[in-house]
Write a structure and sequence with these properties.
Blueprint (H helix, E strand, L loop, with lengths): L2 H16 L3 H18 L1 H18 L2 H7 L1 H23 L18 H17 L2 H10 L10 H28 L8 H24 L5
Helix pairs in contact: 1-8, 2-3, 2-6, 2-8, 2-9, 3-6, 3-7, 3-8, 4-5, 4-7, 5-9
């Protein structure tokens, strides 16, 4: 991949990362619920999900999903179900304080929390056929078919990972700073329902996504 081509993809990757979507909502939800230091681990799960998508596209399975109505439908509805489940869970979450009176985050076993955030982040991005089809449509435009594709996919994956590290850090930090403003049960309940509704809305939008013909 030539430098000029990579620079073009680098710019495109910022647009991909910044655009609102399930990943941004998940990062903000994580920041709100766990603060920046812990909530940022969600980002590593999101990046792992992106890398999974890149591997899927690189191995040609993305073409199968794009070409097979059954494969696309199965993956799509798995993603829809997961996002709606996250939304319902967030909507029904009790209005527990996000910070204790001393200002420290509510205690959650660190290892367990990190594992849950990593898995949740991976699921949000990996089980998303729209992402697969999107990468399948965009990535080939930046590939040099005259050279080995493996190294080029590594560069693409690393670039997407870097931009997500930065963008999701901003989303997580922005959300975590709201912790000090949220005190009453009514505020916390409204917040949970707002993010729950966002997850459900994204799931519904994914359900309307159709395989390109």
């Amino acid at each position: 991949m030539e430098l000029s081509t990579w620079l073009a993809f680098f710019l495109a990757s910022w647009a991909i990362s910044i655009s609102p979507g399930a990943g941004a909502v998940a990062a903000m939800s994580s920041g709100l619920n766990h603060g920046f230091a812990r909530g940022y681990f969600m980002t590593f799960g999101l990046i792992a999900g992106i890398w999974t998508q890149v591997v899927v596209v690189g191995l040609g399975l993305g073409a199968l999903i794009a070409a097979s109505s059954l494969a696309f439908t199965v993956i799509k509805w798995l993603g829809v179900a997961y996002l709606i489940w996250l939304g319902v869970r967030q909507w029904r979450a009790p209005p527990t304080p996000l910070v204790e009176s001393a200002g420290a985050p509510v205690h959650v076993p660190r290892r367990r929390l990190i594992r849950e955030l990593l898995v949740k982040g991976w699921m949000v991005n990996a089980v998303n056929p729209k992402g697969t089809v999107f990468l399948l449509a965009v990535v080939p435009q930046f590939l040099d078919l005259g050279h080995a594709l493996g190294p080029q996919y590594l560069v693409i994956g690393a670039t997407l990972g870097f931009t997500d590290l930065v963008v999701m850090a901003a989303y997580t930090a922005l959300a975590s700073r709201l912790l000090r403003l949220l005190r009453t049960p009514a505020q916390l309940r409204a917040l949970n329902r707002s993010f729950g509704s966002l997850f459900i809305a994204i799931g519904v939008l994914l359900a309307t996504f159709k395989r390109a013909t």
